[in-house]
Hints:
With 163 residues, the chain is α/β, with parallel strands linked by helices. The chain is built from four helices and seven strands. The chain has a seven-stranded mixed beta sheet, sandwiched between helices. α1 packs parallel to α2. The N and C termini lie far apart (36 Å). The relative contact order is 0.18. It binds S-adenosylmethionine. S-adenosylmethionine binds next to α2.
Amino acid sequence: MTRLDTVIERLKAQRSCLNAAAEALRGNDGHILELGLGNGRTYDHLRDLFPDRDIYVFDLEVASHPDCRPDSAHMFLGPMSETLLTATDRLGPNGILVHADIGYGDAAATARNVREIGPKIPGLLVSGGLVLCDQALDTVPELTPIPLPQDVEPGRYHAYRRV
Ligand SMILES: C[S@@+](CC[C@H](N)C(=O)[O-])C[C@H]1O[C@@H](n2cnc3c(N)ncnc32)[C@H](O)[C@@H]1O
């Protein structure tokens, strides 16, 4: 598999997981949290899937496409090790979906992100809320793995339910 194939499969997996979560969460009250705004691609997809929900985004800074920027009331800028705690205080455990796209090219930085960010996710979610992540979060005790959509290869993306 070439690097191009890998990127394409990752993006297809993201889209399938987000679509499946929207279907599973239909009728549930709560907001959405996007950890890693980046270019804004998955934020744009989320706002299409959840047009009536508040979507809060997290990143070090805003570098997304100008058409894919939330207003300042829906942005938490700075290191997520800090902003997730600020958001927990402000928003409480009322999210129904966390999408976390937090991998770097650098394995050590990715592992640090998983260590620092993973344990802070459950405090943002209602019981039964869902987490989709490009990284495995199997060390977070409040998160139980759930099946991926059929078209997503195991390990390509990761899905959990908050107990
Ligand atoms: C892979 S990109 C997200 C891409 C996005 N999902 C999209 O579809 O365009 C990851 C983003 O997360 C941000 N990020 C990663 N770790 C972070 C951290 N610890 N604190 C704040 N932002 C972080 C990076 O700055 C980057 O913009």
